[in-house]
Amino acid sequence: MKKPSSTTRDSIYEVGYGKPPKANQFRRGRTGNPRGKRQGEENTISAFKRIVSKRVKINDGEKVRTITLAEAVILKNCNAAVQKDPFAMSNIFRLAEDAGEFVDFTDAKQVGRSIAVPEKAKTIEEFLAEFGRSPETE
């Protein structure tokens, strides 16, 4: 590597972590990934959605039904859970919990307050008492 000349000593550029030499930096107006992501290339989430939305045929007793792969996996887990498979049971309970099946909608602590019904209006005395004040001091 060349030593900086006397004309460039004024503008000494510190080379280090995250600061590559000027000669190796990307040129202005150019991207570091010129080809980029190929058009139509799918990411993991879209690939997953495409796969689980495929329709498969299953034997349901005497009938042959066509359901999505995701439904087939859930059905298989349910059948295995009935057969006392602990892993399948935990999968089913996790799915039910994520779907909100274990929330008691009659318990206000689990559900929260209703949005449409306002709380009881407070008097000025109750409001000031919350902050340790009285109407006489105001």
- Taking pLDDT < 50 over at least 5 consecutive residues as the criterion, the unreliable ranges are none
Count of β-strands:
2
Count of runs of 4 or more consecutive helical residues: 5
What level of helicity do the residues show?
A: 25-40%
What can be said about the biggest beta sheet? 2 strands, antiparallel
What structural class is derived from the secondary structure elements? alpha+beta
Spatial strand arrangement across the major sheet:
1-2
- Proportion of residues in β-strands: 5-15%
Give the integer mean of the pLDDT values.
Answer: 81
Order of helices and strands: HEEHHHH
State the separation between the terminal residues, measured CA to CA.
78 Å
Radius of gyration: 33 Å
Bulk shape: flat
Task: Explain what the structure shows.
The structure is a single chain. The protein is α+β, with helices and mostly antiparallel strands. 34% of the residues lie in helices and 9% in strands. The termini are far apart.
Short key terms for the protein model shown above:
alpha+beta; 9% strand; 138 residues; 2 strands; single chain
